[in-house]
Amino acid sequence: MEALLTPPQLQIELAGKPLSAGDAQYLTELKVSERLSLPSQCELAFQGLPDLLGELAATAAGSTLTVRIGRDRSLFQGSVTTLEYEFAPANHLGLRIRAYDKLHGLRLRQAPRSYVDLTVTELAATLAADLDLAVAADETGPVWRLIMQHEQSDLELLAEFAERAGLYFHLRDSVLQFSSLAGRPATAVLKLGENLLEARIEANSGQRRQAVGNLAWDPWQAAARSGRADTARRPAGAESGFHAESAPEFTSTDDSVQDDNQAEAFAQAQLDHRTASATTFRGIAAGDAELMPGLAVRLDGLPGPVNGQYVLSAVTHRFDSRQGYVCELDSAPPPLKPRKRATLASVGVVTRVDDPEGLGRIKAMLPSYGDLETGWIGVACAGAGKGKGLQLLPGLGDKVLLALIREDPAQAIVIGGLYGDSPLPDDAVVDGDIGRYFLATPGGQRIALDDAERSIRLHTASGQRVELQPDKIRLQLDSGSFFELADDATRLHAAADLEIEAPGRTVTIRGRAINFEQKS
């Protein structure tokens, strides 16, 4: 392709100082790549350098990099992260300098943390608090009751929850701008043959859906949740495309959320993405620093059905001696990250049991997740149901086994308790197999079922006992008084005064012989 436009005057600063004229003569290409929900990258390519290890490389390493068009329009601000050295025949030396904007700082940070009751934009403000960035958004998405960061970098965490809300972000001029795939209002008109140099439109009917439903559930309350989206968010005046309106519906299943708003946001995000992917635009336009991801542009001069507005997802500003200054444009939305579907297990230590809603839930600290604390999570109990079930809830300090739904510790359920290194309340092994079973409380109440002796014993903390054995049944108080029914005799023993009375009724004592003995 022949040169298209004369490159504008570029202001390039390394380490706060303008690029010297001596170094600038070797600059063959400058490229600024901007993508939704990713850091922007700037790459400078130098060819024919007399010395690769000279002052330019030494100055660039780890320094700040600023690119302006003219004196006032900032195109890129960031820090150099990579130097790439090129060695070609005839001692031809090349150097590529790559830098990323401040969002790269979020990519480098990762630590277990939890965030409570915030939207995606509030999460962004929290994560970027030390980066001197402003956050702007037309939509904020649903409130997330609890987000637990684990393994993801700050950038991955932000992108994940923004995507679930159908939002995407882009940094320019220290403003982190959030928008849906409806984009920000169009300010640019690209006309084929004028400022639109090349265009390619792809219409893919396999992507479009008429509606998206989301069937979900809340692990915190074991309750069904759902959401639905019937109308995609699109820019006003979007292309009409070639698609019939009778596209099939899509239903997402088994999502884990805390309320219907979260379920609906995910359904809306799915519908927006499928709609934006159905008709996409790629092209090359005359250079314009105002073109950026998240901005809607209006195409003109194309066949009628594909004229209209498209939301840019990627813009590459390219400056070179062959093409001049052009912008490579793409409206295809970023691919959706596959949702995790596996359930993991982890150990927790119970920290709270006073569920404010009285639903028998607990909070637990997760040692393998940096001691993060869960929200109020349910406990699986045998036979649980309305007004029934075996209610054996873990207590403070108990070790519990948690199922982490979709690998998310914020969406957990207690599936059982663990003794760990704590001793058992009694020995359960008889002749190398389990022969005894126990129900014990921390306060000393106990029920023992012994298959070896075919007996059942109930002990209270104050010393009362009930014993059921094959040849006798015994009820005993801690004072020593007992009542015993045995095969060979029935005994009533009183360690205190004994009264037998039936006021107003008849007392009958009957037997072959009746003996009364006095014993002191």
Account of the protein in words:
- Helices cover 10% and strands 41% of the residues.
- The protein is mostly beta strands and 520 residues long.
- The protein folds into five domains: 10-101, Baseplate protein-like domain - beta roll fold (Phage tail proteins - horseshoe like beta roll fold); 105-179, Phage tail protein beta-alpha-beta fold (3-Layer(bab) Sandwich), CATH 3.55.50.10; 184-330, no CATH class; 344-418, Gp5 N-terminal domain (OB fold (Dihydrolipoamide Acetyltransferase, E2P)), CATH 2.40.50; 423-520, Glycosyl hydrolase fold (Single Sheet), CATH 2.20.220.20.
- The longest helix is centred in the middle third of the chain and has 19 residues, at 260-278.
- The N and C termini lie far apart (122 Å).
- 31% of the residues are buried.
- Residues 1-5 have low confidence and may be disordered.
Number of domain modules: 5
Major sheet: arrangement of strands: 2-1-5-6-7-4-3-21-22-18-14
Q: In one word, what is the shape?
A: elongated
Beta-strand portion reads: 35-45%
Put simply, the count of helices is 6
Largest sheet: 11 strands, antiparallel
**Low-pLDDT ranges:** 1-5
Report the end-to-end length measured between terminal Cα atoms: 122 Å
Helix content: 10-25%
Category by helix and strand content? mainly beta
